[in-house]
Amino acid sequence: MTLPAVDKHKQPEHEHRIPTRAFTSKSAAGLVVGLALVALFAVVRVLAPSTPENFGLPNAARDFATLSISVVVESLPFVFLGIVLSIAVQVWLPEGMLLRRLPRSPVLRRLVLSLLGMLLPVCECGNVPLARGLVVKGLTVAESMTFLFAAPILNPVTIVTTAQAFGWNNGILVSRVLGGFFIANLVGWIYSRHPRPGELLTTRFQETCNLADHDGGAGRVQRSVQMFSQETRAMMPALFIGAGMAGLIQVAVSREVLVALGSNPVWSVLALMLLAFVVAICSNVDAFFILSFGATFMPGGIVAFLVFGPMIDVKMLALMRTTFTAKTLLQLSLLVALCAAVLGLAVNYGH
Amino acid sequence: MVIRRLVSRWQGVVLSLIGLTATIWLGLSGQLALYIHPRYFVFTVIMAVIAGVLALAAFALVPGTSDAPDDGHTHDGDAHTDADGPSDGHGSRWGWVWPAGSVLTIIAAVVALLILPPSTLTTATVAQRDLNGSASALTLKAPALPGKGDYSAFTVRDWASLLRSGAGQDFFADKTATVTGFISADKTDPNVFFVTRFVVTCCAVDAQPIGVPVYHPGWQNDFKTDSWVTVTSSFRANPNAASPEAIVLIPDSIKSTSQPAQPYVY
Lengths: 351, 266
Prior knowledge:
The complex is a heterodimer of chains A (351) and B (266).
Chain A: H1 2-47, H2 59-92, H3 97-100, H4 106-114, H5 124-136, H6 141-150, H7 156-166, H8 172-192, H9 203-214, H10 220-252, H11 255-260, H12 265-279, H13 286-291, H14 299-311, H15 314-320, H16 326-349
Helix pairs in contact in A: 2-5, 2-10, 4-6, 4-8, 5-6, 6-8, 8-14, 8-16, 10-15, 12-14, 12-16, 14-16
Chain B: H1 2-28, H2 41-61, H3 67-74, H4 97-115, H5 123-128, H6 135-139, H7 156-164, H8 169-172, E1 176-185, E2 192-199, E3 208-215, H9 219-222, E4 228-237, E5 247-249, E6 254-256, E7 264-265
Parallel strand pairs in B: 2-7
Antiparallel strand pairs in B: 1-2, 1-4, 2-3, 4-5, 4-6
Helix pairs in contact in B: 1-2, 1-4
């Protein structure tokens, strides 16, 4: 019994001495490496040829690159914002400040969480890092799903843009808001009954959760920076791969086929859900995008697009894969797709 | 092993640096408009700078905590102190797939964001997305008609909206349009091309092509598709009565021009 006690006394001392001495020189070296990388990237960018003709790429390849880059450039600031918010919640908010104020009853908790997006108007790509942060802080997996699916729809920016695009026409706005709210809470309720919710998460993310308990020793700045490096490690590859897939599918899938399906009550719903999955547009502006199909598609299809798209699409699946297992994501996609389809069909036929 | 650890540890920060270097460069050289709507410019650049500071701080601070002693002291009894970092927990046989994929992602990001020249969308996307097929792109900003006078400020979008709104031939009889856009061929009539622009509501992903038809037999000899032109002309009835475009521009001459700084319309 005595030995570990002695050890404990010795170790903090020992741990204290080494980093402080090595700290400054090491971090200076790290900073130099970082700055050198930035300089290298900047030089490459400035020296690269500036006219597209030099590369002789076919148009389709050029558009694939442009579309993918556009997804990255558009989503990147939102992902960073999500990471910064996630760091704020995990490191800088007083312990339990957010979660302690939630109601006790699980159903009420999820109801409140699905309204959290009202306070944090982040686009859906920013919600994934934020949701990860909340799980690390002690939110259950089911609750994080409710937040993840509700926040992009029950979000002031989304509601305003949808209202601008559609007004009160055909109940599109109401169906979107209430439908999104209902589906998010349904998904949360179903997964709250899972006997071992830990299994829904990837092992890598479970380790992140465990690690979070460990680094209580480091300073807040240090922990923030560590978390930034951790979160970008998970998010960036997913974002880049998701953007590449979104660009590729857009160049490859013919829209004429989609539009041909638009006037059928059943096919319009399915076709627009497929389109939502493929184009992977931020929920903040998807209403303007789909407005352009408003003439060809039935309102139920548009509702299905507006509800399904923010929850599940190629980019979101890539981002969520950092956190949930493939099996969970498959179940979630099917569940959300089913609900969105039912909602769309109800709008089409009850019309 | 060393490479694998380096890659798994720094991949995210390096990809961020690539992304934000490209973003800031696009912002400085005024080319962000090729990818996103101008209302996002300020937000995008600010977030890129904040992320840049955090990424550099990560280089400065994260290696300082060589993880072995750090984890060792908090839970000294724990066997699974993650001293190797979470990434090495994968099976050994397929262990190389992950780092190889990571390196490929980084290379792809460098090529796409740092080497390829920034580019607008081309006629390949016009073909993919119905030209003038988008109701919102053409009605959202239906132009306020300036009574008697000045149509000189009218853009491709305004004229395309007017043409689509079904205004009759007498309405267009006395009007002269000056429009700039890139050339895309008419699918049905070889004598007609469209002066085309993309309407962007958020980013290039949602770009919708719109265009004003120009009747100019033999245009293929003088111009390539995708090249930018300025056309000044009055509107006439389409000589080809079978064409779906009843009213077209019939210019005497077409001027080549360079791609404008803001190639999309909003």
